[in-house]
Amino acid sequence: MPDLSKRALFGKILGANEKPQDIMPPYFGGKFDCLECDLLCIKACHRDVLIYEEGRVKFDTSKLGCDFCKECANVCPNGVLSLENPAIINAKTFINVNSCLAWNDVICYNCYDVCKFKAIEYFGVFRPVINQKCVNCGECLSSCFKSAILMSVKKD
Hints:
Blueprint: H1 4-14, H2 40-44, E1 50-53, E2 56-59, H3 71-75, E3 91-95, H4 110-114, E4 120-123, E5 126-130, H5 139-143, E6 149-153
Antiparallel strand pairs: 1-2, 3-6, 4-5
């Protein structure tokens, strides 16, 4: 039987045992006060990018991306989401080149076609990269049927 304690040690070193951090929605003020809340922000989101888990509103791009319509911030009664806060999503969006069709000699423009911010550039017809125009709205994530575009919490 293998010694699993060595795996646990490497997992700690590499951070594999850490719970991934949640991506917060735009207009988030940094503090949650969602207890006894009717979750009006989630009901107001016409793109279903907000979910409620573990007492928190979280950003979820499994269906669509955020269009920054401001409705969530307009209806939040507790100021968790507020127009006084910046419309920033605390994430970093990147392409997994091993999974991306366009990085593997297949012509695919799904992510490019949906990005209204022109944040995806191609080198010819292949090798897309995400440029500095990306606002981390998440629209490109659901457009990629290979799930090659990923989003993680931005490390300062």
